[in-house]
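User: I'm curious whether this sequence folds into something compact or stays loose and floppy. Could you predict its structure so I can see for myself?
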Amino acid sequence: MPAFALPDAFVVAPQSTSEFDPAAVAAAGEVIAAGPEAVYQRLVGDQESEVVFLLARHVLKGFCNGDGPANGAREPTGHGGVDAQGEADRIAEETAGVRRRIGALLESLGEAEPRVREAVLAQRAPLALIGGCWLDSVSQPATQPATVVNHLVRHQFAWRGEGNPRRGLHRLRGRALEDQGVFLPDVTAPDFLPRAEARPLTAWLGAYSLSLARLPATFLPEVIGTHYVMASLGVDELLLGTRPLLTEADLRAALADYLALAPAPVRNRLCAAVERALAWELTHARLLVEVAEWHAGLSLDAQVGRIVARHAPFAGKQHRNVRIGRRPLAERFDDPDFDLGAFIGEFRASPQVKPRADGCRFLRAIKFGGPMFGIFDEREAATFERWADAIAAGEPPGAAVTPNTAGDDAARALTEAIAAPPPDVRLRPADRGDDRDFLHRLVNIENFPNTLALARAHAEEGLARAELLFTHGGGGVLTDASWFDYSPSALNERVDRIYWDKLVNPYRPLTEIPDRDEVVFGQKTFALGSMIDGAWAHRIGATGRYTRRSDGMLYSIYADEMGRGDVTKNHITLIYQVLASMGIEVPHLRETAFLDQDELPDHLYGFSLFQLSLALFPDSRYDEILGYNLGIEMFGLGTMRMHEMQKLRHHGFDVAYEEAHLSIDNLSAGHARQSAELIVAYLHDVAKVSGADAVPAHWRRIWRGYASFAYFIEHELVAGLARHESADVII
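Assistant: Here's the prediction. I'll summarize afterward.
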């Protein structure tokens, strides 16, 4: 049986068949049929359903196998014995060349009038405001503690403002857009793409990045190639005038390390992804130029026509007495064959726009005190004024609105390629199997999306079961999950009481040390949970969800668990070091070989199965994850850790894992204190947005999450309650 050894040279998950329930096919088909905007919106707004995994497979297959601007490009140079640094340098040189070409294309936009520049920035926003999304879940139980993944964790930590959402990449870009007059809703909002007037190709390119975010272990070569190109090209920094948060040297070092580890087929995939990303970014830069030219070429009549088209659907029957071209206005707007160009021609010749000494009737109507005041914004009103002045000056009609078709040919080709069924999909209902099988499916969820429904049910079952401790949790040895009403002071008091009464004050050094075999067995009982350290939070802070203080605080805790990208400080690295010091060798739990390992006891899978199941639902079970996080971070303190360190040292075993938790989880300022503080911050935000009455329901869910952790730790308490319940039933 192949044993896992450090350093972790993982470069890609096996691209095996991915299993989906047959019902997911029809659901995904409906989204694809609705168009690229619907696919983008589903991918950015949903990270928990089986459908999004299938949509991601469709999109990635369409981009990787379909026709595109990179088709026919230079063959990748990956081959045996490749000079990794030399190949990284070649990619960097090619990327720099494309950057210069894109810079030349975009240079003219600096001279564009504000409305044109704003239209270009809005067009780019669906890509700019999801930048880096491909790193959302690249760090996960299946990929840690891989060397290259820890490079990416370091980059992600920088892009996420080092745990402060307000300093994160997306917020910086959002503020830069607003500074330049572009105000858009959140990327998850249903009107985001319409407000940005996103072209279909823009939506498809965004969907590609979002699809990588859903399947990063399976498509890690594509993630690495895309990451290097997008970050090094810096198209959004060129457009917005912002500074890059990552250096090209750091990006190139990560690329070189990956190339050195990857076998030839994987290098070829990476090189193809680089060519694809370069070609599509160049294509999108050209699209932006086309969009700019289209907007710049709009006559005043065409600009007015766009304004009328935007507001016409909301014109009510109050306009029934207003006639344009002998027909009531309301009747014209209700006409399914409404001719916008003809309407503008008749409108400019109508009495409403006819020049008068006191100003035209229409302009008076849209000013304060007029019947149409407040319908048009300042820029729209200014456009109407310029149009009326031009008419008064005798300027002839301008060209009517022509369709904006920028990027449509490429978008149609992608639509066709993406709609075709992916070849690597197998349709079958989920089969949980035994605990080992279930663990394998949860760790490799990208290949088993049909397991999501089982995972949700498993998490719900564990959460519901744990409520038993709301009444009896005070009897716990290391926890106290008994219910109390929330207030910030009450939470801090409970945390302090658990710390002193259950974790610290009971501590006495061991007077007798168990023999070697007993110590090794004890470590084996913890090992499986330690191998997925941090997993409960690995999906927190995904694109569109990294906005609250609690998001940044919980993400920071996860980043600490992963060593903030320093693989030597990564907690999963540390546990494998401990096991190696005991002579315990097992395959990595992502491998199928782990199904047959015989070192770790079978009866202890429950803790990991629950944690992995809960982790897959960071949106719908956010509250419960916060509570679970509090439990697990406090568990790293006090008597249990001190005793384990004493036993390990006595037998000459590695104590790095225990030392790291005893230190970083401290109650003064470490993870234990941060875990309480982030709950307070979150519930403060709940009260601020939804009112104080909403807090108790969220608090109950949070404390249920804490209780679900305690349920697995307090074995004797839970077993005693079960025996008592059985006795009651017999009686």
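Summary: Residues 72-76 have pLDDT under 50 and may be disordered. The longest strand covers residues 18-20.
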